[in-house]
Amino acid sequence: MKKYLVGASMAVLLMAGTAYSADYAPVTDARLKSPEPQNWLMTRGNYQGWSYSSLDQINTTNVKNLVPVWAVSTGVDSGHEAPPIVNNGMMFVSTPYSQVMALDATNGNFLWRYKRKLPEGFAALHNTSRGVALYGNKVFLPALDAVLVALDAKTGKVAWEAKVEDWKDGYYMTMAPLIVKGKVLVGVAGGEFGVRGFVEAFDAETGKSAWKTYTIPAPGEPGSDTWQKPDTWKTGGASTWMTGTYDPDANVIYWGTGNGSPWFGDQRPGDNLYTSSTVALDGDTGKIVGHFQYHQNESWDWDAMNAPMVVDFQNGGGLKKGLLTPQRNGYLYWLGREAGGNISYLKSEPYVPQNVFKGIDSETGRPEVDPAHKPGTGKAAQFCPGLWGGKDWPYEAYNPKTNTVYIPSNENHCNNLEGKVEERVPGQWWTGVAIPDFHFTVDTKAGFYGELQAYDVNTGQRSWVKRYPDSMNWGSVLTTAGDLVLAGGTNDRQFRAYDAKTGDELWHFKTNSGVIAPPSTYEVNGVQYIAVASGYGVDPAFQQLLMSDLVGWNPDVPQGGVIWVFAVSK
Q: What DSSP character marks residue 377?
């Protein structure tokens, strides 16, 4: 095995472009359905969204010897939220401002870089990117200005571009695409600007649109009666700003939807399907074949943007084809994958304290909402957890060896909001509340705010919890067959490894900035690597500023992106 020493092969600056010598392995449907452990071909590692690797060369015994073997600066600031994607020794990382870097995964040598020129006057609420997708010999980037870009994987040259929507109407894109049967599926952000969400599929070879499914039904379509006030459906939100998951055996896609728009439900009476829901889509046509709404008439900015993991678990004395998802509203849900794409409710349990739901119907999963904790127009109300939820977008992870789900979460925080009626101006903030008026509060006597929790998926019992007294947790989780859980997420810039069974911290490394990106792992020439992008910004940075006023935390967490790659030193 290659021997690594700290600093022995560090590459902290962008290197001159070099030719990629290895043969690039085209990404096929078969490879995506059964990805090889040595590669990391999609954002969460597999279609099911587990964020799990079966590699075990790095494990609980030797992880203490993990050292950085190379690092590369991205050259940009803002929040880095994309995992390193690796195919056949070639790494692709997207960065804020719609850029993609291609690197040799063994040494960080720079291969090519794509920098999108964004339109004059363009501005997005978040400048981040959450990843690229691979298919054939192409790399697919959803650009901030709502354009899908296909790049040649070997050269970085643009193969084609497809306009997804008009950014001037408030649409933008930050999510990583999902590849299904030769189609590139993308969703859109813009729920705070009054958009109408959708998922659209493009032919990977030509860039032509194959289908487009709106997540708010038009009049006459199923669910349209849940929008009781005329025309509110046109600007009702339900944005689709995170990547979906996929059950290839059933050919069903699961996609999460965002908050209602504006934020306050009394301005758009009704349940408002399919806001704050998981929608099930036919893998060929994109038709909605099932759904589950986590809370009706969404009024707390509790997006349900993360698609559930496709996980089978024990239920009613047998193994159930299921979906598992810790939602922003603070509840962990066990759902059923039924014939034809229907989604059934099985059970749910709070993983953080919550004061909005009086209870949840055991048959339907519909919550009984306490009106005292539901804000409205001219009506202030406190709700806990606050608008960032029990967890925000960072990914949970499922380990089939330990049969455990690992959840990056936050608690002991609330918001007190009061809405007002605002005129919608396309492309401008339109929530019913101004950005400085969030009235974010915390329990200053709580003793902790961020945490990493582990739950047995069969019993629903919490196995262990790691709490952070001086930080929120904004870190996606990676878990491996080496019985490891790897995550950043804290304001102290640490990247950590935990024992997946006990929660014991086994290793840590202080990076240049805060780690809010999902880690990934891969193997080249018999060596397993762990990779992660460090780069604080966007919501974690904003929340850090609020916490500096409330509890005295240092508001200055350094920004600037660096890709870090680690291996075990022998």
A: B
What are 403's strand-pairing partners? none
User: What DSSP state is assigned to residue 263?
Assistant: S
Q: Which fold has domain 29-568?
A: Methanol Dehydrogenase; Chain A (2.140.10)
Nearest to 79 by CA among 489, 561, 491, 473: 561
Q: Cα separation of 236 and 191, whole Å?
A: 8
* CA distance linking residue 372 with residue 389, whole number of Å: 18
Query: Are the beta carbons of 560 and 537 closer than 8 angstroms?
Result: no
Radius of gyration, CA atoms only, the chain: 22
Q: Is the CB of residue 14 less than 8 Å from the CB of residue 110? A: yes
- Return the bridge partners of 91, or none: 86, 103
Under a CB-based contact definition with an 8 Å cutoff, are residues 261 and 216 in contact? no
Give 10-residue mean pLDDT values along the chain (570 residues).
34 38 88 98 98 98 98 98 98 98 98 97 94 98 98 98 97 98 98 98 98 98 98 98 98 98 98 98 98 98 98 95 98 97 98 98 98 98 98 98 98 98 95 90 96 98 98 98 98 98 98 98 98 98 96 96 96
Q: Compute the distance between CA of residue 514 and CA of residue 521 in angstroms, rounded to an integer.
A: 19
Q: What 8-state DSSP symbol labels residue 513?
A: S
Query: Which of 89, 100, 88, 97 is CA-nearest to residue 132?
Result: 100
Complete edge-to-edge strand list for the sheet that includes strand 277-282: 245-247, 252-256, 277-282, 288-293
| Rounded-to-integer distance, Cα 102 and Cα 372, Å | 52
Q: What 3-state class would DSSP assign to 63? A: helix
Give the residue numbers marked as catalytic.
Answer: 301
